[in-house]
Design a protein that fits this description.
heterotrimer, A alpha/beta (about 250), B alpha/beta (about 500), C alpha/beta (about 200), A: about 250 residues, alpha/beta, Rossmann fold, four-stranded parallel β-sheet, globular, C: alpha/beta, 12 strands, binds iron/sulfur cluster
């Protein structure tokens, strides 16, 4: 299958290793990955902060770039949710029938990574090897927008060597929330404190999730405390193999 | 009287109001305990209700239908209530409602009223208005009484005193009821409340209530409660005054079969709350013989005219969104500067105030969606929050603030590959003043809120796209060199896009 | 009294303006896919009803038409009650001898009240009483006599039965009066009856 990668702006800029892992993983599974270089951002930050007008051209841009893709893989549940939850309404509001049509055609081909693997490719065991104690944080968008349910856990359970520990209050928000983390910094910090307590209680060395945004926030707090826990995107765990993590 | 919905007008921004609350360890412990208990109970009774989603769907459909035909149903309610001996009044805003209520009480020569919990009366600041006119309102709901006697503010829709623990309640009761001795078991405190109020229930001639539902078909009213104080206020006095927002009307008696299954499970985690009272106008020989209903607009018609946020009016005030909200759970309702706190407060308060106040409330959410998930009438609160943020941004647009400028710049950056890539390069260079020992620990301005409690990894030397481009180049090289098999032609279709 | 006629017109006008774009929707077409009829057999329904009442801390006694006076006497004896006030319309033939039956004027000092009901709901442990709102509220104890045939499984079934009484004063009672306002601890009996007894009559 030819899979087009929408890496997302912050993964591109801040977490290249996640994108590399997605490429490695999908190629290992026998698929062809394509990365349209024109892509930038889905518009989520603008849209959610109230700058809906500014998000409009970004939506159009996304649609233009990906409209012919066979399948689009988004290794970020909040960006996938942005596309799925808000693009239709945004397109609707322009009254542009061609755009509305294009969005409707595009949506069924947009997959968050775990969805792509389990639902589209029918896989749970992706042949990964990751000999670490890991806990999984269910990000809000993965849980309540995309309804991923236990898909990421099903993938993790099939990873050889991986010791999966359940996170208490797994459905509680970590306090990231995009610009919320700075606009309401103190409340966000209080929420983070709760999340960190739960992560530390697992005695895991690695906390994973399908969103680097939440992980950046969680890790930011863990690192400040020198907690000795690192955060790793699900893609990187799934891309690891006995032959080694890197290329 | 002209006391306008005071509280929110003076309310500080959410992030400021939250600060002392985050430091109040007792409050946070109390709130955490209470919300945990209700959430757990709710999950259990919702879990056993196999048709929960169907009930939610019907409830939101009934509410939506009613709102779109609100004029018809209000007129029907008015006609039937009047025919049954009730009097219906209409109030455009808080002032008008307070004036009507005051007149009704003064007509009866009343100096006191007994009140059963009504959010709406708090919304219009009825108590201060009455007190200013020399009328004493007795709150009779246990929690409201704790708040009233403790001169405190409510922090939750359903359990307004959930931020107080038993020791704190005991102190308030001993002081205000003049008791020398009182235990601190909830039983002791409830008994004290019973004894304190019984005499008032039997003596005071005017009762005051809110309404959970107004039934258009019959002109009847339904009040949902637990303690029996509601029944006292609704049946013992000679005069009963009920206030209800215009969105409280439902078409038929039968619709209650939906709402009375959703509300108690959502609100208190019970299969059914101890008491529901239904009455229609005046019943001969039964209950108050002088009955008035005040239908309050106070901003509701304005909300109705906003297509995106109209759904706010479906709310049945169950408080489930508050219990589920991770922000509320940290701050309690006291940070919201309004009786409507938590997610519903974050969307309702700014709209009731026509966005003039409480501009920070739509941002008091991480958009985690827990509220939408539990809402029994399926209000998509995150969607409304985002919509209201849009309004805040539009209204602030004139004043050039840093955030707006930053957002504009970002949207320019994202508008083309070229600007995006150069911004990535610039960012990597520009970050070095802030990187020390391999980490970003201090950022300037608003971004400093990030580094206050979190480290940040600097931007890596290579972006993903640079890595990809190099990789593609290498692949092409391999392809060109004879004897190497590369089965897949790398996708270059992106080059077709300008 | 301020004249609110203008306000009324203004509010209705604002509503109509706000809803000018509303497509007319038919109330009858609102989907109701929730459970509306019984799914259990009679024995299960009655058992569920009794279980729910127990969970609310209510006391349940079973009786038949013949044994009901004795059952009432037994409940009063157990509660150390020598008097009670009886709701209007309660069949005198069901009352035992040797009890002081009080008048409504004695309501505030009554030890307990006895009433029948219109419908009861097994699923939620709810008893619905028409009228008698004060009598069933002020005394410390309420004794309610429920016929097995009055018990339905679901809330919607109860509403179907109550439809003819839709404009009557109705009270839904689910257990004794209670509060959880202090630390979310459920406490029985705030202002309403502290104790609820139910006699379930096989008919
Ligand atoms: S918004 Fe929904 S969950 Fe929140 S109080 Fe209203 S009805 Fe309940």
């Amino acid at each position: 299958m030819r899979i087009s990668l929408f890496i997302t702006c912050y993964n591109d800029t801040l977490f290249p290793e996640t994108g590399q892992a997605v490429v490695r993983l999908l190629e290992r599974l026998g698929h062809q990955v394509d990365f349209p270089l024109e892509q930038t951002c889905c518009g989520q930050m603008h849209y959610n902060t109230g700058y809906q007008q500014e998000a409009m051209p970004l939506m159009r841009r996304f649609v233009e770039i990906f409209c012919n893709a066979e399948v689009i893989c988004v290794p970020s549940s909040s960006c996938a949710a942005m596309v799925r939850d808000h693009y239709p309404k945004m397109a609707e509001s322009t009254g542009d029938t061609a755009l509305i049509q294009a969005v409707n055609n595009l949506l069924p081909r947009v997959y968050e990574l775990a969805e792509l693997l389990v639902h589209k490719l029918g896989l749970e065991d992706v042949g990964a090897y990751y000999p670490h104690r890991v806990t999984y944080h269910a990000s809000c968008h993965s849980l309540r927008s995309l309804h991923l349910g236990d898909l990421p856990l099903r993938l993790l359970r099939k990873v050889r060597g991986l010791d999966l520990v359940e996170l208490q209050d797994v459905d509680q928000c970590c306090g990231f929330g995009g610009t919320f983390a700075v606009k309401m910094g103190d409340v966000s910090a209080a929420m983070l404190a709760d999340k960190i307590r739960c992560v530390e209680d697992t005695r895991a060395e690695v906390c994973t999730a399908v969103d680097n945004s939440c992980l950046m926030h969680i890790f930011g707090g863990l690192h400040r405390l020198r907690a000795g826990v690192r955060t790793v995107h699900l893609a990187e765990i799934l891309a690891s193999s006995e032959e080694g993590a890197g290329q | 009287m002209s006391i306008r919905v005071g509280q929110a007008a003076e309310a500080p921004p959410f992030q400021k109001a939250a600060l002392p609350l985050l430091d109040d360890t007792q409050l946070r412990k109390n709130v955490r305990h209470a919300t945990n208990v209700i959430t757990r109970k709710r999950a259990a009774v919702v879990g056993e209700q196999h048709d929960w989603q169907q009930l939610r769907a019907s409830a939101s459909a009934i509410k939506e239908h009613t709102l779109r035909h609100l004029d018809r149903y209000l007129e029907q309610f008015e006609k039937n209530c009047t025919a049954a001996g009730g009097h219906v009044h209409w109030a455009a805003d808080a002032d008008e409602a307070n004036r009507i209520i005051l007149d009704l009480i003064q007509q009866q020569g009343g100096k006191e009223i007994i009140k059963v919990k009504t959010m709406t009366s708090d919304e219009i600041s009825l108590n201060p208005a009455l007190e200013a006119a020399g009328i004493h309102p007795h709150e009779t709901d246990l929690a409201d009484m704790i708040i009233q006697l403790g001169r405190d503010k409510p922090s939750h829709i359903v359990v307004p005193a959930l931020h107080k623990n038993r020791q704190q309640v005991r102190e308030i009761f001993m002081r205000e009821m003049g008791l020398n001795e009182l235990g601190d078991r909830p039983e002791d405190l409830t008994t004290a409340a019973r004894n304190y109020l019984r005499e008032k229930f039997l003596r005071v001639k005017i009762g005051f209530s809110g309404a959970n539902y107004l039934i258009a078909e019959t002109g009847g009213v339904c009040v949902v409660e637990s303690e029996g104080n509601g029944r006292m206020c609704l049946t013992l006095p000679e005069t009963l005054i009920t206030i209800a927002g215009i969105e409280k009307v439902i078409p038929t008696f039968r619709d209650l079969e939906v709402f009375l299954q959703l509300l108690p499970r959502s609100a208190t985690g019970e299969r059914m709350n101890p008491y529901n009272s239904l009455w229609t106008g005046v019943h001969k020989g039964e209950g108050p013989q002088n009955f008035h209903v005040i239908l309050l607009d106070n901003g509701r018609t304005r909300i109705l005219s906003d297509q995106e946020s109209r759904q706010t009016l479906r709310c049945i005030r169950c408080g489930a969104c508050q219990n589920a909200c991770p922000v509320y759970r940290q701050t309690s309702g006291l940070a919201y500067g309004s009786i409507y706190a938590g997610p519903i407060g974050a969307i309702l308060t700014p709209q009731l105030f026509d966005m003039q106040h409480a501009q920070t409330l739509p941002y008091a959410s991480s958009l985690c969606g827990a509220c939408y998930e539990v809402c029994p009438v399926k209000i998509n609160i995150p969607e409304v929050l985002i919509h209201l943020r849009g309004r805040v941004v539009r209204e602030q647009q004139s004043s050039a603030n840093l955030e707006a400028i930053g957002m504009k710049v970002m949207s320019r950056i994202f508008s083309s590959r070229r600007t995006f890539e150069s911004a990535q390069r610039l960012g990597r260079l520009g970050q070095w003043p802030f990187v020390s020992e391999g980490w970003v620990k201090h950022l300037p301005g608003m971004l400093g809120n990030w580094t206050e409690v979190r480290d940040l990894r600097p931007m890596p030397a290579q972006t993903f796209r640079t890595w990809w481009k190099n990789r593609q180049k290498q692949k092409l090289k391999l392809e060109d060199s004879p004897g190497t098999q590369v089965s897949q032609k790398p996708g270059l279709k992106e080059n077709h896009h300008a | 009294m301020p004249d609110t006629t203008n306000t009324r017109e203004a509010i209705l006008h604002r509503i109509r303006t706000a809803n000018a774009d509303a497509p007319s929707s038919d109330y009858a077409l609102i989907e109701r896919a929730y459970q509306q009829s019984a799914s259990m057999d009679r024995a299960e329904i009655l058992k569920t009803f009794a279980d729910r009442l127990h969970e609310y801390d209510a006391h349940v006694t079973e009786a038949t038409q013949q044994t009901v006076p004795a059952a009432i006497a037994e409940v009063l004896r157990r509660n150390h009650q020598h008097s009670a006030i009886v709701a209007d319309g309660f069949p005198p033939s069901s009352l035992p001898e040797g009890v002081h039956w009080q008048q409504e004027s004695e309501l505030n000092t009554a030890e307990g009240a006895i009433s029948g009901c219109e419908v009861a709901i097994a699923h939620t442990g709810t008893i619905i009483i028409k009228g008698s709102r004060r009598i069933t509220l002020l005394p410390e104890r309420l004794l309610c006599v429920v016929y097995a045939s009055q018990v339905v499984e679901t809330v919607p079934e109860a509403f179907a039965r109550l439809q003819p009484l839709a404009a009557e004063p109705l009270t839904f009672i689910s257990g004794p009066s209670a509060t959880a306002d202090i630390e979310m601890t459920r406490i029985r009996g705030v202002h309403g009856p502290r104790f609820l007894d139910v006699i379930l009559l096989q008919d």
